[in-house]
Amino acid sequence: MGFTARALMLVVVLSSPAMAQDNGWIQDHLTALDGLFGATVQVLDIFLFADFGTGFPLIVAVLVAGGVYYTFYFRWLSVRAFRHAIDVLRGRYDNPDDPGEISHFQALSSALSATIGLGNIAGVAIAVGLGGPGAIFWMVLTAIFGMSSKLASCTLAVMYRNKRADGQIFGGPMYYMQEGLSKKGMTEFGRTLAVVYAFLTIGGSFGGGNMFQSNQTLEILGTISPWFKEFNWLVGLLMAGLVGLVIIGGIRRIGHVTSRIVPVMCGLYVLASMVIILYHIADVPAMIGRIVSMAFTGSAIYGGFTGVLIMGIRRAAFSNEAGLGSAAFAHAAAKTDEPAREGIVAMIGPFIDTIVICTMTGLVCMITGAYLRPEFQSGDFIVGTRMTAAAFDSVIPGASYVLAIAVFMFAFSTMISWSYYGERAWEYLFGGRSILIYRLLFVFFVFMGSVTALTNVLGFSDMMILGMAFPNIVAGVLLSPQIRATLFDYWERLQSGQMKTYK
Q1: What is the structure's pLDDT at 309?
Q2: How far apart are CA 59 and CA 469, in angstroms?
């Protein structure tokens, strides 16, 4: 029996209600597997979130330090080139003859689909509930620096991307780690970073970019109707089938789908948020004042200044993935012969993800008073989603149903983009001939996430995603002189009028 047939048979067996009830050994083995990851999660947690007595977690410090370094080293190009980024997204510089697989807009939407998700809805609600209004200030500030991190990694992605024999373009952080550092005489070091990064990406794609999304989608749908929890196997099969249909087509189909889903889901969410904000428009100035004032004077209930600071920074860093290098996979496939141009497009990601979407969530939860309700004072994602739903329902009756649909769309788009990220990492390690194995495994884990609650497995995969920051920031800083030279050369030619436009 071939691998495909075995995988399909296993999915069918596990999806059978009778098997779910009569074969407790399946759950017993899954629970045992989950337990094996427990100790590892604890070790990773100690390392990634070590604060050395400062109260500032190591992983957060690395992500923020990288963004601050890039911002000043590139002379705030992330801000100066913002208008140009919009022009590029509008297609003014799209040359149909440029090498690549997808347009600038499709590359950005693919990257955004991987970052916009439960973190923007539930994560922000948690940050505001536990950190207070001041957390929003640090969230936005971190995103501004995060724009430079995206600018750096996605510029490198195009500089060191590869081309297959059939003409397809692909790339990712592993390639600029290995090839870029090799040019600096650090071949073995670069190769080691690349291999570590690839393994982290694959692990993260199965968990945080896959199982977590389907698992939490079922949990949220279950708050609307118990039917979804009762027939979780059926919903899981549906999600697995939809994901499979998209990812089989590769980055072109992923870019095609996300370029339609992302604008719609973002537009609906922002529109609903604006309705609530306008309903409470008289309270907006005072709320903005509280966001700024409490950013520096966090009260004791929110853990003081340090607690508010870390809560905001941590949520922004985890939401937009700036510094992790994940967006480089999508942007490496863009149709362009200018690496700096794609980097400039990529920096719009943290702006949309955090400064727009996350800020909207934060304002809605604060302006309606939902963040003060004691039943929502928890770090649980489901509780965070319920807080946001309660905030929406307080002005728009039944809005929680719309929010559930938005969550489903966010989760689906996240899964299809992370499948591509993991696929590129898998190809780097094991070669292109085995990609089908990865795709089948990915679809299988979509289903598994909907029918199991493997807490430690999901925690382990999330740690792997965060761990991606270390090799990526190290390689990026070492290669920053190359990035800076490429960016400044492009900017000089743009300012002197040498860039050809097509619209």
Answers
A1: 65
A2: 8
- Residue 136 located in a structural domain: yes
Please count the other Cβ atoms lying within 10 Å of the Cβ belonging to residue 29: 11
CB distance 251 to 333 below 8 Å:
yes
| Average pLDDT of the residues in 430-440 | 88
Query: Each residue of 22-75: pLDDT tens digit?
Result: 445 556 666 666 666 667 777 777 777 777 776 677 877 888 889 999 999 999
CA dist., res. 42 & res. 22, Å (int): 33
Q: What is the pLDDT of residue 29?
A: 61
Q: Is this structure's pTM higher than 0.90?
A: no
| Residue 223 dihedral angles phi and psi, to the nearest 5° | -75, -15
> For the chain, how many residues are written?
503
> In this structure, is residue 267 part of a structural domain?
yes
Per the CB < 8 A criterion, the answer to whether 464 and 204 are in contact is yes
Cβ neighbours of residue 309 closer than 8 Å, sequence gap 6 or more: 134, 138, 295, 298
How far apart, in whole angstroms, are the C-alpha atoms of residue 100 and residue 144?
28
Residue 1 counted as domain residue? no
Residue 329 clears pLDDT 50, i.e. is over it: yes
Number of domains in the chain: 1
Say if 333 falls within a structural domain.
yes
Rounded to 5 degrees, φ, ψ at 95 are -100, 115
DSSP 3-state assignment of 431?
coil
CA–CA gap between residue 111 and residue 420 (Å, rounded)? 10
Q: Give the span between the Cα atoms of 296 and 291, in whole angstroms.
A: 9
Residue 316 confidence (pLDDT) above 70:
no
What CATH number should be reported for the domain holding residue 93? 1.20.1740
* Residue whose token pair is 């004042």: 289
Average pLDDT over residues 255-262: 77
Would you state the pLDDT for residue 36? 66
Non-local CB neighbours of 405 within 8 Å, separated by 6+ positions = none
Residue 403 lies in domain: 25-495
